[in-house]
From TrEMBL:
It comes from Candidatus Paraprevotella stercoravium. It holds the Pfam family DUF2582. This is Winged helix-turn-helix domain-containing protein. Gene3D superfamilies: Winged helix-like DNA-binding domain superfamily/Winged helix DNA-binding domain (1.10.10.10). The lineage of its organism: Bacteria, Pseudomonadati, Bacteroidota, Bacteroidia, Bacteroidales.
């Protein structure tokens, strides 16, 4: 894995998140077709650039993580 690959994967995730919807990790993984390793690297890339926001918590005994784009006006 190199920076170009991670950047390309971050672009895939960015495009999926660009529909003003909160995504669960497992749904994002399924829709993107990326492995856990590649998805996590892409999320890290976007987080480092402050382009995504995280919401996590626990519901019905299950932990969840939602991802969404940061929008600035």
């Amino acid at each position: 894995m190199n920076q170009n690959t991670i950047g390309a994967h971050a672009g895939i995730i960015w495009n999926l998140l660009n529909n003003n919807k909160r995504w669960e990790y497992c749904d994002l993984k399924k829709e993107s077709g990326l492995s856990d390793r590649d998805l996590n690297a892409a999320i890290g890339w976007l987080a480092r650039e402050n382009k995504i926001q995280f919401e996590s918590g626990c519901k019905d005994g299950k932990e969840y993580l939602f991802l969404a784009l940061n929008f600035y006006y």
